[in-house]
Amino acid sequence: MGGRGRGSKSRTQRKHFRDGRENVWKRSKSDSPADGNSAATAAVDRSWQPFATQNTAFDEYYKEQGIVSPEEWDTFMEVIRSPLPAAFRINSSSQFSSDIRKQLENDFTKCLQAEGADGAEIEAIRPLAWYPDNLAWHSNYSRMQLRKNQTLERFHEFLKLENEIGNITRQEAVSMVPPLFLDVRPEHFILDMCAAPGSKTFQLLEIIYQSTKPGSLPDGMVIANDLDVQRCNLLIHQTKRMCTANLIVTNNEAQQFPGCRLSKALSKHSVSEHEQSMGQLLFDRVLCDVPCSGDGTLRKAPDLWRKWSPGMGNGLHNLQIQIAMRGLALLKVGGKMVYSTCSMNPVENEAVVAEVLRKCGGSVELLDVSNELPDLVRRPGLRKWKVRDRGVWLASHKDVIKNRHFGAVPGMFPSGRTYVAPIKKDIKNENGGNSEPNQELETSNEDVDEETSDLPLERCMRIVPHDQNSGAFFIAVLQKLSPLPAIPENPKKQKNSIAKKDETQEKISDPSVEDTDEQEQESKSIVMESASEAASDIDLVDNEEEEKDVPMEVAPCDNVSTENGLEDTQVTVNGKSDPEKAVGNRKLQMQGRWKGVDPVLFFNDEATINSIIEFYGIGESFPFKGHLISRNSDDNHVKRIYYISKSVKDALELNILVGQQLKIASVGLKMFERQTAIAGSDAPCAFRISSEGLPLILPHITKQILNASPVDFIHILKYKTIKFRDFVDAAFGEKASKLMMGCCVIVLKKDDGQVSSDTLKVDASTIAIGCWKGRGSLSVMVTAIDCQELLERLSVRDEGMKEIIARSKESKVLNRKDEKEEVEVTEELAADQ
Ligand SMILES: C[S@@+](CC[C@H](N)C(=O)[O-])C[C@H]1O[C@@H](n2cnc3c(N)ncnc32)[C@H](O)[C@@H]1O
Asked: 411, 349 in Cβ contact below 8 A?
């Protein structure tokens, strides 16, 4: 099938995916849709009744922080209380992207305007001016309105179908911004540190695929990571629609993301020069879209109104710094990192960026990107803000009362300076000399009422809802200029953080302690924070023997290549494992040191690989051997074979050599699937090509591939199984009957008269589907929804096709399924897809 985006479908996952992105607005039955006026305030839909959009603490906090001027306050609040209009993006690497764009520009823009009239002129959908090539669209209807309003049904159906297929992605407009500032190129190695549910990962993949020719892959790759296993599943589901071989989904802690440094392993094990060439996993680009309080999403998640407190942001500040610092450590010199949050809170935004810049001491620059995306309305970052802790406003660390030093740390304030109580000058020490001030703290005894940062934080961007009727977002673009400086290890800090952790956990587990909402939120965040600090401390302890000063470059998490890890490595690198071990592995799946996670194994079974190459006539131009992996250590029971790009292959080999530091949840493009019993019993090749893998391998196969006329191609899509004698083009039926039993590929013949597989030329517009050649008929091996969508695309693209599709509706002749066995095979294949 041409184009990416025909991923496998799992109903349960789809449901989770939907639920995970669902809004929870309650609406009365009598409500009517919004008037759709594009101006921010006019678009506020008064008929929507959110259950609670009041929070005094929120008002007080943001009024004081001055993120909008007092004159704008009412407009800001009015917009942030209204539902968020829907937005979506066309997948630029889809084969049908320009068809879809034309359909939106010419068909839906006009008909939706006409339909939504109500007497008034409405701009129902429009491209987002700041997004390149009219690929991202804004709709003045919220997602709920799109679902409820009958007149919008066709548009809604279109959105649903194309989203499911992967041709479009529904995504909040402002969430599309960070990847655009990352300046991604196809050869880049990209780390998306906190990636779930994956909309930005999808965007990053689109960008690296943008100028890729059919049958080839970009040189770069994306590692998409998320700590939360369930959210990771959403991410996998989301990115499956992209059908990519250039993605690894991992499940590591971002602040401890492994550096996969080869040096230690090398000292004990000899590896080839080739293996040494990628001695460490470093990235050209890092997206650091950190966990945050999320108040920029209030318009689509109104339940947050009830929960919001300043403590949410305060509690995340440290974790955000740790994740950003890890991102910078993993970045190549010269590389760029985008730090972003969907929060408006300066403590999670400017304060984090400022602290990171201070820690990096000149090795990292905050870039001025004010000339980029000029149509995107945004506001400069703040240089002044305050911290609110337990109901008290604090202008500087000096204001923090003694026992709250843990709640409001110096890095939260604009200057980042630590306050130390004045020391009496004349106190003599035991030796008669003056006492030294405490060396571990930067001292600042000046009287500071309100602090201002001396860093160029105005280079950060804050997008606020009422500027362009959107959600809110914060973005900062950083560039690494030189290796990060070493950080002196502070043993006292270790002790403190461990004590702190114990204290917090005690408090959380003690039912007699009754927290307020604010306290509760904060405490939860503190647990996360302490846990991560403890983790880094453990790493540091392990490293202590070798390094007293721990460089911030990838060292802290590199100490995980254990003996065991390396032993596992050898088992998998060398391909086959001993059978007894394989049986054991089946019982308890192990990925190196990760228990309960399927292993990632290079698939090196020569006999199977050769039979696939022979059956499909795969040309030597296609890098095949060494690019296949499975998730089952027993080759005889491998159900699916995945294809990986060269970049992913290099990363996986490195990961194996360093003891599987990456906890891999998903990797590779599903290329082949084992035939099921009935279908596969007579076929000479045990594996069929999957829909996802077909676009990539299509230009490289020379056998089991045929051109079909438009009418026969459409009939296959419509009737699913057709007897050889029933094809309109008898010669095609004849050729099809002579194919070998099993999987084959049918290509839609173009007007330029391609006739046989010998002359078949594949380009970006080639449309092909996987089929099954049975004894008396040909059956399609594409899911019903994919067939439906492809028919839809063909009819939109071409008037001639539209006519054939319309005519074939009346034809009943072909809809004969009188051969029991063929029906069984088709049903079985469809169920497997
Ligand atoms: C703002 S969301 C990311 C949204 C995502 N970038 C997207 O565009 O779809 C933050 C994510 O961070 C994850 N997360 C929280 N703590 C983390 C940690 N310590 N390491 C990695 N991911 C973490 C959460 O599970 C959540 O999915």
From this structure: no
The tokens for 274 are 């080739």
Q: Does some domain include residue 681? A: no
Instruction: Quickly state the pLDDT bin for 317 (edges 50, 70, 90).
Output: very high
- The verdict on residue 184 lying in a domain is yes
Residues 190 and 115 in one domain: no
Q: Locate 125 and state its tokens.
A: 């959908």
Are 56 and 112 in a shared domain? yes
Helix, strand, or coil (residue 742) = strand
For the cut 60, the answer to whether the pLDDT of residue 712 exceeds it is yes
- Higher pLDDT among residues 440 and 456, named by residue: 456
Q: Which SS3 state, helix, strand or coil, does residue 16 take?
A: helix
Asked if residue 245 is part of any domain, the answer here is yes
Give the pLDDT score at 109. 83
Q: Would the CB of 291 count as within 6 Å of ligand 1?
A: yes
Chain-wide mean pLDDT for the chain?
A: 77
Mutate to test the pocket of ligand 1, among 175, 200, 223, 227 (most ligand atoms within 8 A of CB): 227
Placement of tokens 């380009």 in the chain? 763
Q: Are residues 227 and 329 in the same domain?
A: yes
pLDDT band at 495 (very low <50, low <70, confident <90, very high): very low
C-alpha span between 517 and 185 (Å, rounded)? 44
Q: Is there a single domain that holds both residue 333 and residue 214? A: yes
pLDDT: which is higher, 568 or 198: 198
Cβ–Cβ under 8 Å, residues 93 and 4: yes
Q: Which of 174, 207, 235 is the last residue of a domain?
A: 174
- CATH number of the domain where residue 296 is located: 3.40.50.150
Verify that 332 and 397 share a domain, yes or no: no
Going by pLDDT thresholds of 50, 70 and 90, the confidence category of residue 809 is low
Cα 20 to chain centroid, rounded: 14
Ligand 1 touching residue 228 (CB < 6 A): yes
Overall residue count recorded for the chain in this entry: 833
394 and 370 part of one domain: no
> Is the distance from CB of 323 to CB of 193 less than 8 angstroms?
yes
Domain count, the chain: 5
395 to 57, 398, 407, 413, 474: CA distances (angstroms) = 18, 8, 14, 7, 22
Q: How far is the CA of 289 from the centre of ligand 1 (A)?
A: 7
Residues 756-795 pLDDT 10s: 444 577 888 899 999 999 999 999 998 888 898 899 888 8
- Residue 531 in contact with ligand 1 by CB distance below 6 A: no
Identify the residue whose tokens are 């209009």: 85
Does 351 sit in the ligand 1 pocket, CB within 6 Å?
no
Separation CA 655–CA 822 (nearest Å): 45
Q: Are residues 570 and 631 in the same domain?
A: yes
Q: What is the ipTM of this complex?
A: 1.00
Q: How confident is the model at residue 565 (pLDDT cuts 50, 70, 90)?
A: very low
Q: Tell me whether residue 685 is one of the annotated catalytic residues.
A: no
- In 275-434, which ranges are E strands? 283-289, 331-341, 364-366, 379-380, 387-389, 392-394
Which of ligand 1's atoms lies nearest the C-alpha of 178?
A: 8
Domain extent, residue 161, equals 11-174
Task: Please tell me the distance from the alpha carbon of residue 733 to that of residue 748, in angstroms, as a whole number.
Answer: 14
Give yes or no: residues 119 and 209 share one domain.
no
pLDDT-derived band at 148 (thresholds 50, 70, 90) equals: low
Question: Which residues sit opposite 283 in a β-bridge?
Answer: 331
Residue 713 inside a domain? The answer is yes
pLDDT digits (tens, 9 = 90+) for 199-210: 999 999 999 998
pLDDT tens digits, 650-661 = 999 999 999 999
What's phi and psi for 605, nearest 5 deg?
-75, 100
Binned at pLDDT 50, 70 and 90, residue 799 comes out as confident
Pick the last residue of a domain from 149, 174, 199: 174
Q: How far is CA 522 from each of CA 267, 293, 346, 494, 591, rounded to the nearest angstrom?
A: 45, 11, 16, 21, 35
pLDDT average, residue stretch 595-620:
93
